[in-house]
Amino acid sequence: MSTFVEKLRQYRKPGYYDKFDYHWTMTIDLDRCTGCEACMVACQAENNLPIVGEKRFAENREIKWIRIERYWEGEYPDVKMRFIPMLCQHCDDAPCETACPVFATYHNQDGLNTQIYNRCIGTRTCAVYCPYEVRYFNWFTYTWDEPLEQQLNPDVTVREKGVMEKCTFCIQRIRIAKDNAKDDDRRRVRDGEVVPACVQSCPTEALVFGNSNDPEAKVSKMMKNPRGYKVLEELNTTPSIVYLTKVHS
Amino acid sequence: MSKISRRDLLQYIGAGGIGVVGGVLYGESVQQNVELLIPQVVPPEDYSPGVATWYNTVCNQCPAGCGISVRIREGKAKKIEGNPVHPVSQGRTCARGQAGLNALYNPDRIRTPLQNVGQRGSGNFEEISWDEALTTVGSRIGRLKIDNEASRVRLLCGRVRGHLDELFLQFMNLLGSDHYQQYDFTYPSALMAANKMSFGTDVLPYYDIRNAVFLLSFGADYLGTWISPVHHSLAYGHLRQGREGRRGKTIQIEPRMSLSGAAADEWIAARPGTEGLLALGIAHALVSEGHYHGSDRDEWSKALQAYSPSLVSAETEVSEDKILRLAREFGTSTASLAIAGGATAAGTNAVASIVAVNALNYLAGNLSQPGGIIFNPDPAFSATAGSRQAGFQGMLDLIGAMKAGDVDVLLVHDTNPVFALPDNVGFRQAMQNVPLIIALSSFRDETTEMADLILPTSTYLESWGDDVPDPGVGFPVASISQPVVATLYDTLPVGDIVLSLARQIGGELPIHMRWGTMEEFIKERWREEYDQRGSEGEEQEFEAFWQAALEAGVWGQPGAVAGDQPVPLSSSMIASIADPVSRFAGDESDYPFVLHPYLTATFFDGRGANLPWLQEMPDPMTSVVYGSWVELNPVTADELGIREGDVLDVESPAGSVRVPALIFPAIRPGVVAIPVGQGHAAYGRYARDRGVNPIHIVATLIDDQSGDLAWAATRVKLKLTGERLQIIKTDGVTRTLGRQILGPENDHA
Amino acid sequence: MFDHGQPSYAEVNKDVLSVMLETGPKYWMLLGTTMSVAGICFFMPWIYQLFVGVGAAGMNRNAVWGSYLSNFIFWIGLSHSGTLLSAVLHITNSPWRKAIYRSAEAMTLFSLMTAAMFVMVHLGRVWFVHWSFPIPNQMGLWPNFRSPLMFDVMAITTYLTASSIFIYMGSVPDFAAVRDASTGLRRRLYTIFSFGWRGTAREWHTLGWAYTFFAIFVIPLAVSVHSIVSWDFALSIVPGLHHTIFAPYFVCGAIFSGTAGIVTVMYCLRKFLNFERYIGQVHLDSLGKLLITLSLIWSYINILELFSSWYGGTSFELEALQFKLTGFYAPLYWEMILFCAFVPLLILFKKIRWSWNKMLVISILINVGMLTERFIIVATSQPRKFLPDAFGFYFPSWIELSITVGAFAIFATLFLIFIKWVPAISIYEVKETLKPLRRDA
Amino acid sequence: MSISVLDALRPGKKPALLGLVLVFGLFVGAWVHGKYFSDRSPIQPIEFSHMIHATDNEIPCQHCHIYADRTPVAGVPSVSKCMGCHNSVPSVREHPEILKLVAYWEKREPIPWIKVHDLPDFVHFTHKRHIRAGLACQECHGPVETMNRITRVATMRMPWCVDCHTERNVEHGRDCWTCHK
Amino acid sequence: MAIMGSFAFEEDFLTAAKKLKSSGFDKISLLSPLPLEEAQEILELGKSPVRHYSLAGAIIGAISGFAMATATALVFILPTGGRAIITVPPFLIITYEMTILFGVLFTLLGFHFVSGLPAWRDRPYLSSASSDRFVVVVEGAAADQVARAEAIIRDAGADEIQHVGEGQ
Fold this sequence. Notes:
The structure holds five protein chains of five kinds.
Chain B: H1 6-30, E1 36-37, E2 53-58, E3 67-73, E4 76-82, H2 95-98, H3 100-104, E5 114-116, E6 125-127, H4 130-146, E7 153-157, H5 162-175, E8 180-182, H6 189-199, E9 206-207, E10 214-218, H7 229-241, E11 249-253, H8 259-263, E12 266-268, H9 275-288, H10 297-303, H11 309-316, H12 320-332, E13 336-340, H13 350-363, E14 373-374, H14 391-403, E15 409-413, H15 417-420, H16 427-431, E16 436-441, H17 446-449, E17 453-456, E18 465-467, E19 477-481, H18 494-505, H19 509-512, H20 518-532, H21 539-552, E20 554-556, H22 570-576, E21 593-598, H23 612-615, E22 630-632, H24 634-640, E23 646-652, E24 655-663, E25 671-675, E26 714-724
Parallel strand pairs in B: 7-8, 7-15, 10-11, 10-13, 11-12, 15-16, 16-17, 21-25, 22-24
Antiparallel strand pairs in B: 2-3, 3-4, 5-6, 5-17, 9-14, 18-19, 19-20, 21-26, 23-24, 23-26
Helix pairs in contact in B: 4-18, 5-18, 6-13, 9-11, 9-12, 9-13, 13-22
Chain C: H1 9-21, H2 25-52, H3 67-91, H4 101-122, H5 148-181, H6 184-193, H7 201-234, H8 246-273, H9 281-312, H10 315-326, H11 330-342, H12 350-353, H13 356-381, H14 398-421, H15 427-433
Helix pairs in contact in C: 2-14, 3-4, 3-7, 3-8, 3-13, 4-5, 4-8, 4-14, 5-6, 5-7, 7-8, 8-9, 8-13, 9-10, 9-11, 10-11, 11-13
Chain D: E1 2-3, H1 5-9, H2 13-37, H3 50-56, H4 61-64, H5 79-86, H6 96-107, E2 113-114, H7 127-132, H8 138-141, H9 158-167, H10 176-179
Helix pairs in contact in D: 5-6
């Protein structure tokens, strides 16, 4: 009986998890970010993002799991350009997840906001609900001009038309790291073993990724930075990405 | 249900039969396609299916020479990342480096040797065999050699470093032609010349942005395109947030905000062409305000007398206060660094401007200091590649020779002068006078299209080679480039082609160039280097070294020598100070705007335009994809009644291009900017017939001292054509509208 | 009640059944036209879209929802008056309901079906639509009942079931009348359709009770359906959609457009099926008054919505508000206000209220306005959400426009088929409104 | 005069029965197809018998499927591997199936085996983890050592995987991203 | 044996019905083209048991609705959006819809049970009953009572009387 009550309590608990197994988190230091977009191409290469073509771009149908948003401040001559990389925030209270009628997106034990492409039926509700607009829809089945398809990453599936997709924090790399950890008889992945493609490429090291459950992880230390904030925090989506503001001098 | 008639029974059986057949057909239709399981005939040694392996090699997407690691699965390249042990890239890559895969797997690669069968430049090519191609070339060159006319053979290539350069040189020498030239639009000729004047060194110094505290950049887009962007970005990250409690500051001086301008704390749009003057103004203030304490203070103040901040302020339209403030900060910061590049190094005053900037560095006392300019030791090998840079003057000479009929055979490799030279120098027309043009190329760019014979080269990911990054990183480094995948098509690495040609030509060439392949050649050279450096030279040991070097992709002596180069005397520096104000082609009244062409972080000088990932990468500053645009200040646009998307005729004294307008808040009024990179007439499906090439309308003014093309010294006028064109960009509204996006302090509407 | 004198019982049968039993070439031509329009404008583009992907429509990264969803709400809304009105009037025992409710309910059913079609058209991978139904499946994975879309699935399924049952049960005695007036296969079919209905007192009694219960169930159901549709939007946090007023707003708008739709359908029935005798001034008058009331409520809620956006004062809401009122789609917004808030006020004039032609025009204008309203909801809010950099723009493609037009043809086709299969006016209930025949009369 | 639904239904009896027979036939057809014509045991280019190799000659699985315990893919033996043994087995050298093998080898062509166990592209599966977790090959592939022609025993569909993960209490075994990619 | 009498006037029909009822005939069917409250009163039908079906359906629907939402959520635990696995408010909406769905379905079932429809077996009927005739059917009358019933019907003013063989 007590286990029943315990279980019921668990099922009634908001968010369900007591604690994430890993809490994958990213920090993005805007003071380092130069807007060079190396991360965008890295992501495109790693995650088989399609080459959509000029026509689709003109129609605003591009797919970029990570993009750089640009904001101007002031007017000439005191004009400033601010870059902010925008990718799936892997919100713990994600508005998109509840929207899906078929559980194609849900929150897993690693604190990741998942998207199971093969389950998606394409209602696109998640994209509407997402305040960060980081969910991208496959309006068409995209193809690669032969032989460009040879560079497709076999660890990531190629999505067909009618499917929503988004940043996965490079789940395939997390998977490989966990696999290696198991091979070494370690239960846990070490800090720095998982590096998503964008973080890996970032030439200014503005992006840091890791398990924020581990207080020793670099990302946990970065999160303590007083410059840290979360985008659109007032929406209470509790994102997993912490931005560090640009310093004014 | 008493009796069923025979007729009924047949009907039931029929229905059942149809059902069964239908069921079987249904089963057949939902059956998965037959997938085959193809085993290897003989498995390679280190082959593991489903497991990735990494091979280190060198990136060739720009001349920075970053080390890269390529992820290989089942023999196919999947991902390019930085080589973590390589001192230039330190595990990082830029967008262009990543897009190298697009070059390897580009659908528009040349797959077999081709022979032109139509009119030259018409693009009618026919496939031929390697034998045929090499025989044709070999016999032609061989005949010239026998006739002692080998000097009528010319070799023009892009920026080639490492032992490939030596191979080319040897080939041409043995042939008896001293016409081996390199042409690279982005080669910093002015910087080299200025440094030679200021510091007396032929080797580019290492700019230690990483440890700088105050970085003053005169037009150098060090984060996007200048010299070694990935390395500078790493340094920039450290400058900003790498040191506890000490955030470096950067100032960018340029008429149109570049990526580095956006990153800077302050962006100053001085009058175009006066950046060098501004540097002198700052130098004047440095000395006169007493921030310089050297023994030669008086000499400096004398030399800088004419550049008082008030005078400079009037000329540059930068306020005197600002000049004084910059001087103070520059003079008092613990580690100040001034660099120059971009448009500053592309006026008629380029060398003078850079000399002025060098003077700033000298006055701040940062030469051979951490966070300043560190003089590189001699590179590991092949230090002379830069000296073969033709420069603009060299290209004019080549054109002259071609026009005069002095060139019989022109070998072109990895350079695209038809695209990267102004239209009115007539490179393309001059090519018509050359009887035989041979392109050693992977892609059919504009220059390759003009060839009679195309010998397809393998890409850098399929070839052997080595490289010495230029500039170095303060200590001698060499990287090995190795093929990471098997050659995709019937192509050969360029070194192998040269060796084959040598064999084909015969004579003493094959005797001296006895290596079968580039790999053999490189390995032998490395062995020689290894032996020279006083190692035991045992076979076994070199093999181990070679394997280790291959695995690491790089070999060097970290921290061996840094800054032990002599600091040049100030007298030579003082003597080289000249009035650095650029002239402009075109009269201000006829051509009211200064044209500011700029290299883009996406296409560099246009060589990236055939890579779909780069075409689809929004321009970092404007978010535009697929196409060109001309940037205008909002106020200017307002005055002229120009809206975004209005197609303008941008007319210079040298020509005109038709391009849509883009309103850009961070450009000086009176300046219009057009990105370089698009506007290809050939170069594959992704690049072809897209946008315009501003280099084509650049007037052929040259820098007074280096003779290089002053590509930022052209004036233009704008004409509304009445047409409109949608500029494809990913941005919506580029103001935060007071929303909490950029962080608590940064959000003001 | 009867503008042209009271008909006899037998005449009622004859009048109503003749529509079903006698079919002229005009009907076939009309049916042929609507069917081909449906085929060419709706199904062909849709099939094209199925092969190409939803990209055939004009939606994009910033506006992933487009006209398909606005059409969906429109048709759901149109469905609202039929069954709901019929049920409410049944419970409140309003006699004027009886002549019009059958077609009104048919309208409900068919617009609901059309709406369901739009869900299919909207979906990216419609071939997996069964994953959103709670049916046992080999993956052991069920739909997510926490999702507002699942509320929709449940609500619309229930609504479709309940209103089909409602209309069917109400028609059973009339099926018996059809049966008795025909022979051969039709007679046999209608014997089955009418369950062998004889019209005994017990049958009438049971039907009466059951019908009342259906009505009781249907009223809250209809209200819930459109509330739930509004929650698809309101449960998001998108500025311009995240309003608590949305549920009543949608319900009211739905009844509003549905009532206008009934006027249109009444007009057609009267005009083309010669039901002048049964559908008279009293119906028009009552519907007209209802329209005014609904229009006023609708206007009030609209003002309230603007007010709460403005009063909230966040940059998000203000921006959304500003774009709605003055942005690219502002002309559409003001067109909607004109058609839905001001035009219905004309009905206050008896002259207009009593004119069939004028009411037809007004009812169509109202529905044009309501279609616009749905479009504005979709097109103005979600391309302009939180991050200005991701602001975008949405304009429907010709495929969407064609499908929008085709949907009306589908609706018309279904209606045309309906009038040949089901008595368009409830025979027995019309008889109830007649004075009983007396021997001494 | 009278009325009856049954009467009205009567003429439809035969079409209904015919329809029923048709539907029944469909099921029978689908079953027959699944049993006898499916891709579960396709005819291979060479009649390779696991029975002879694994049972009669007692060759362990991983002698040929060498990658199974270290990579995601089990791997089919290379042609050279087959030849390596068969060169030294003179007794069957003249067997027609072996001659086929030799023919492939001499042409330096791979043998186009037909996949029996094929997972769709969106599934992430690794042999390594399963073997290192101590699973016997037979648990998924069935008694391969007794088969002359290989037959797929398990469905290899999602519920089959999930059931096993549930039964064995695999850590996060029911997280979708464990198997989907 | 069954006797059918058809009336043109409602009042005559009701008179006949009343008389037949008071004369002890219990298997009377009163066929009318429209619902007649008086006829239902004569047969003392009172409140219909259909309402029990509706109530039962609603309750079953409510329970099964909530149970379905809960149980399916527990079959495969997939947390979404920081909500609990068993989330009451959304599940109540499902409950609400299922209540109505089952209520309607059960009411339909109730209608069929209570009214005895669909009527498989042959039943005496006049096709004019769906148009403008009111028909009284007396069934199961003993042979000696037939004449009396016929007399009552005729006296009330029936314009047509038929004898129908039962089970025909």
